[in-house]
Design a protein that fits this description.
alpha+beta, two-stranded antiparallel sheet, 6-stranded antiparallel β-sheet, homodimer, 43% helix, DNA-binding
Chain lengths: 158, 158
DNA sequence: TAATATCCCATGATATTCCATTTATAGAAT
DNA sequence: ATTCTATAAATGGAATATCATGGGATATTA
């Protein structure tokens, strides 16, 4: 299972093109390496990205609810209508739509940050701030994570 | 399960390459011997290293959180974006990213120190200092342990 | 026919691969 | 123990490949 990890900061050229880090392209599932899907991150001024397979799975799980409640209809509409699929050019670059660029405040450089099954694109300084914030919170709650891990592995006695 | 133990100091050549000790490479789990994953150690000026399998487990446990919660997003971003996966060249060497080299203060030589399930990479002198500190703490604790044992047996006069 | 997007190729920087040499390690023989 | 020998590991450098980036040319479309 390939994961998106690390962070890379790439230049947005004057035509609006950015290279998606080769590592991230390589981490896309087989058969889904031609494009990525992106949308506005919730509660963060960043662009959330994943592969098309991931979206298909999310959609399947939404349709699993039968019948769909009004809420679920609204939710899936809001989610799916906000998605953009971008295919790479021959050199692994994409052109991020203006709306998303503005949402994330990206101009000259874009920071690609791994999140496991997804990754995000940030304006570099904004990312640094977010990272500091997030790290503080992680330090606070690290104990909780350790507790869960120990429970999964260690508690398996019987 | 093989463990990372002992310590080795290797040279960083002018291209930034360092050999990962053969013993450490051999201790990587089967199927995960092509690379290691590293990140800034918390509360220490050192690089923390483990195998990719270890990371996949951590990521799985992260996904255990509510996928829509702010917490889950912050955790994954903070942890995963800070990771770097490095694959070995034909001779078992890696190139440590500049940012991590600077964080640990490594220039000419790097000390690999086993920690059991993980290992660390230090600037040699910094490691020596850390080791002295750690040994002092062990002494303290051992004294405390002896004290307890004596207290438990003590009344019985063996 | 502007304006925009796509394709193609060039380039410098960096990373990877490959091979040669040196150094360290382990075991056998003295 | 000490020396010798065979093997493995670490180190160095040159050749090669990959990647991010830039720009021109071609296609699309409004």
């Amino acid at each position: 299972m390939p994961l998106f990890m690390s962070k890379y900061t790439n230049k947005v050229d004057r035509k609006g093109r950015v290279s998606v880090p080769a590592q991230f392209r390589a981490a896309l599932p087989a058969g889904f390496q031609k494009s990525i899907v992106m949308y506005q991150a919730v509660n963060q001024e960043a662009i959330e990205c994943c592969d098309l397979l991931h979206i298909e799975k999310v959609n399947d799980s939404l349709e699993g609810f039968d019948p769909l409640s009004d809420e679920q209809h609204e939710f899936s509409l809001a989610l799916m209508s906000g998605l953009v699929e971008l295919t790479f050019d021959g050199n692994g670059r994409i052109i991020i739509p203006q709306e998303l660029m503005e949402y994330a405040g990206i101009t000259e450089y874009a920071t690609f940050a791994g999140k496991g099954k997804t990754f995000q694109i940030w304006e570099p300084e904004a990312f640094q701030h977010e990272l500091n914030k997030a790290r503080d919170k992680v330090k606070e709650k690290r104990a909780m994570l350790r507790f869960r891990q120990n429970n999964e592995n260690g508690g398996k006695g019987d």
